[in-house]
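ESCALATION

Customer reports they have been waiting on this structure for their group meeting. Please prioritize. Original submission:
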Amino acid sequence: MKCRPGLRQCQKCRYQYTVTSGTPMHSSKLPLWTWVQALYLIVTSSKGISSVVMCRILGTTQATAWRLGHSIREMMHDRDGKGPQLRGIVEVDIKYLGGAPRKRKDGTPNPRGKGTSKAKILVAAERDGSVKGTVIPSESAKDIAAATAGTIECGSWIMSDSQSSLRTAFQPIADMYETVNHSAGEYARDGVYASTADGFGSILERAKFGVWHRFSEKHVQRYVDETAFRWSNRLRKKTKSKTGKIRKVILLVPVEKQFAELVRAGLGRRISRTPRYGFRTFPSMTPIVA
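Update from on-call: job pushed to the front of the queue and completed.
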């Protein structure tokens, strides 16, 4: 049977498909070269790239670049728990994404930190390793435990600030749980600190205000996934200077390896447009293999 270039057909069920079927690139009318360029721009940027800038580089509309960005972010998440668990020393913290609160019209300040209406991101960072960020509905121990179920290896050494809900959620799975009291001015004590998790939160905050500026509540998790993917795809090496001092050097994982990881993760994660010009996902779709 004659068909257009790139179209294949299963010999058993006669289902027609392409190499992009069942992936975020499903039914895309864009050339694959445009997808490769968009992938390169996102994985090599330090804090992300906005759809406005991407559309100028790729020569597309802003709406197309926005769709491209979210399609690629769909390849970056590990919400299905297929990635490796965090182990060893794991730092946990809650990031309230949104910057310093503005004052009300009567001049009184809005609440900051706990109790605020900002997006709440639970950050779990393996020291000198990967990081996972999850949007949680509240700071309760129940929501925290549900968000991190299966992401941290039992028996790990967990560190956090003195927030009681974090202790309640993580102490049952921790071999050792230690805290630092930020309210008392204590930020580090004999190797006990949560600065790695705080650092990821700072990068996420700077990326929002410096690159994306604002995004809707329903897409917060996708932007967190993108930032976590870049953080986790870094190589940490120790080098010795001429004076004999040991220092840590952070390098990026080669781009071709990041591309391969994204392509594998994209299998079965088809997305499609909605009547309101958004998109919906099909996370349970079985990938098509030739």
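Sent to customer with the following note: Residues 38 and 182 are 41 Å apart (CA to CA).
Escalation resolved.
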